[in-house]
Amino acid sequence: MVHWTAEEKQLISSVWSKVNVEECGAEALARLLIVYPWTQRFFSSFGNLSSPTAIAGNPKVRAHGKKVLTSFGEAIKNLDNIKATYTKLSELHCEKLHVDPENFRLLGDILIIVLAAHFTREFTPACQFAWQKLVSVVAHALARKYH
Amino acid sequence: MVLSASDKTNVKGIFAKIGGQADDYGAETLERMFATYPQTKTYFPHFDMSRGSAQIKAHGKKVAGALIEAVNHIDDIAGALSKLSDLHAQKLRVDPVNFKLLGQCFLVVVAIHNAAALTPEVHASLDKFLCAVGNVLTAKYR
């Protein structure tokens, strides 16, 4: 089980309480697809991903980004049991979606940058540490049921 | 991985915006890297890691200087950083994974101070550039 200090929990929730899940999720997923174009391999059904503009404006990207970040919110509600929270999703990503877990790490890194751009100075080094820990734990939990 | 003409334009553009603050960005990048990825401190056991440390400021300036050198010679980063590459291979031997961590923190610092300028396209180009620099610095490792 992951140990979170009171300070880490506070830094995570105080940032999360101000996050617009739909906007932030859409931004993070769009940037993942733009910065690491090979990640588009999982989204051939999403239509036009031919340029950064197309990706950023793609309604399926927006919707899926919101879905992904909403799921992140579940981890934040259950910081003391993230593993259990993601058991089914982990199985899904392995057995049905066939997503290389490295992609979870890439998305986590992108999310950190999106949060930094949004919160600027409020995203202190301590804050970055807590969120980096969170995205690593989430990535690990999502990879845990792979076989 | 090759830097396209637009990548080079994007990178030069963002560094022009950073301008004289590059040294501060370098120091903040290191500060965040040490805070976010504590294992990176193992390469600096002799450093004063407290906030505003003179050593971190000085080293941040060195790192920023190297990035600027790479930007100024973006058509031949390997040539521009050849001596640094030798140094990292023969003396410093920083594990290659750490260049990614430094790059991530530099992007965070740019995002914090230049959010509007860090469009997805610029973000992609800058990420590629930082990867290219890391690749050059580890190219002679073996």
Automatic annotation (TrEMBL), chain A:
GO terms for biological process: hydrogen peroxide catabolic process. Residues 3-147 form the Globin domain. GO terms for cellular component: blood microparticle; haptoglobin-hemoglobin complex; hemoglobin complex. Keywords: Heme, Iron, Metal-binding, Oxygen transport, Transport. One of its GO terms (molecular function) is oxygen binding. Transmembrane segments: none annotated. Belongs to the globin family. Involved in oxygen transport from the lung to the various peripheral tissues. Heterotetramer of two alpha chains and two beta chains. This is Hemoglobin subunit beta. The gene is Hbe.
TrEMBL record, chain B:
CDD domains: Hb-alpha-like. InterPro entries: Globin (IPR000971), Globin-like_sf (IPR009050), Globin/Proto (IPR012292), Hemoglobin_a-typ (IPR002338), Hemoglobin_oxygen_transport (IPR050056), Hemoglobin_pi (IPR002339). Keywords: Heme, Iron, Metal-binding, Oxygen transport, Transport. GO terms for molecular function: haptoglobin binding; heme binding; iron ion binding; organic acid binding; oxygen binding; oxygen carrier activity; peroxidase activity. SUPFAM superfamilies: Globin-like. PROSITE patterns: GLOBIN (PS01033). It holds the Pfam family Globin. It comes from the Eukaryota. The keyword Heme applies. GO terms for biological process: hydrogen peroxide catabolic process. Residues 2-142 form the Globin domain. GO terms for cellular component: blood microparticle; haptoglobin-hemoglobin complex; hemoglobin complex. Belongs to the globin family. Involved in oxygen transport from the lung to the various peripheral tissues. This is HBA protein. It comes from Ceyx cyanopectus (Indigo-banded kingfisher).
